Amino acid sequence: MKTIKFGLIGIGLMGREFASAAARWCHLLDMDLRPEIVALCSANPSAQRTDWYTNNFPTIKQVTNDHLQLLANPQVDAVYCAVPHHLHQQFYCDTITAGKHLLAEKPFGIDLPACQAIIAAMQAKPEVLVRVASQYIFYPAAQRILEMIDQQRFGRIIEIDSGFCHCSDLDPNKPLNWKRQVEFNGLYGSMGDLGLHIALPCARAGYEPIQTNAICSNIITQRPDPQTGRPVPCETYDNANLLTKLRDPKTDQTFPWTLRVNRIMPGEKNSWYFAIHGTKACARFSLKNPRSLEILEYAGKEQAWQQIDTGFETAYKTITGSIFEFGAPDAFMQMIAAFMYELAHNKPLNNAAACPTPQEMLWGHRLFTAALNSNQNRQTITF
């Protein structure tokens, strides 16, 4: 088995998830490559932040606060980069230019021009694989829905309803962080933080936005400064609700898509959901009940929803028996497996089991840029 040596740029929550998945790589079966972490980069590589990595991964030989030093390391083959949005363009372009394969984080640039600049850098280095992290489509139920879309089992699409809702910002005393500041997060607000996770299934299906209407809400306009405790402006949108008309290019038919991107929704922990209704079949899934897939198939008579308990049914096979439950760390590992599989085979395992592409991120940027325009001007935006 060939080893791909990784550098991690950004060693916070998502960096630790990547490292944890790499540590249990033997959980996967039939993989041609395995990841090995050899370098770390953090803006503040204090012992408190790096000790967890170096204590658990003796393969790490470089710790730096300069991403260019990591990129100059000839031992590094690929990079997982999880940094605030305002750094995406510079760090991603530098990684690509250095010839390192890149697993990037969404939204893949703080805004549309940044996303386009990263894609331009990719075009100059076509030998570099660049993909984006988004784990939710790798849940077994979500994989089944994506496969049903590919197989056109829904008939004519009537409508799609999807969203991502949680309540992590409901507490007004939660201190301000970078995701609540336009300088670091961008104008998208919750759309940049959560929106690409939700938009991905429609982008993956090849549906084309025709027009959109959006309402964006900044609900808590001040939060405590983490240093002083004094109230400071909280500028980014907490919630966004979009109603978009999509076109299916395979049929030339259009349908509405309701999209909710809510960081403040009481009663929600971390609910990514997707529901698709068609003339032949319907399907719905929510992380509220992560092992439950609901399907309705219609043949002209009675309609009845059936509930299927999905087990550990993964695109990339593991040692875990199919009767067991699938969870968030498993979805993250499947996502990294998708990146590694494509690196080994120069193509994804299949359309459903592929990491998000930069072109799919560009699809989302165009949608969310239009949503900002719609909200600001109180009008429907046509693409």
Outline: globular
Instruction: Going across the biggest sheet, name each strand in turn.
Output: 16-15-14-13-7-12-11-8-17
Content of β-strand = 25-35%
Q: Give the number of domains.
A: 2
- Mean of residue pLDDT? 96
Please, could you describe this protein's structure?
The chain is an alpha/beta fold and 383 residues long. It contains 10 helices and 17 strands. Helices cover 31% and strands 27% of the residues. Helix 1 packs across helix 9. Helix 5 links the parallel strand 5 and strand 6. It folds into 2 domains: 132 residues, NAD(P)-binding Rossmann-like Domain (Rossmann fold, 3-Layer(aba) Sandwich); 244 residues, Dihydrodipicolinate Reductase, domain 2, CATH 3.30.360.10.
Could you outline the blueprint of secondary structure elements for this entry?
Elements lengths: L1 E8 L3 H11 L9 E9 L5 H10 L5 E3 L2 H5 L6 E4 L6 H10 L3 E5 L6 H12 L6 E4 L6 H11 L6 E9 L16 H4 L4 H16 L2 E10 L4 E3 L6 E3 L5 E10 L4 E10 L8 E8 L2 E6 L5 E6 L7 E5 L18 H18 L12 H20 L3 E2 L1
Parallel strand pairs: 1-2, 1-4, 2-3, 4-5, 5-6, 7-12
Antiparallel strand pairs: 7-13, 8-11, 8-17, 9-10, 11-12, 13-14, 14-15, 15-16
Keywords:
globular; Dihydrodipicolinate Reductase, domain 2; alpha/beta; Rossmann fold; six-stranded parallel β-sheet; 31% helix; 17 strands; 383 residues; 2 domains
What is this structure, in a nutshell?
This protein has a nine-stranded mixed beta sheet.
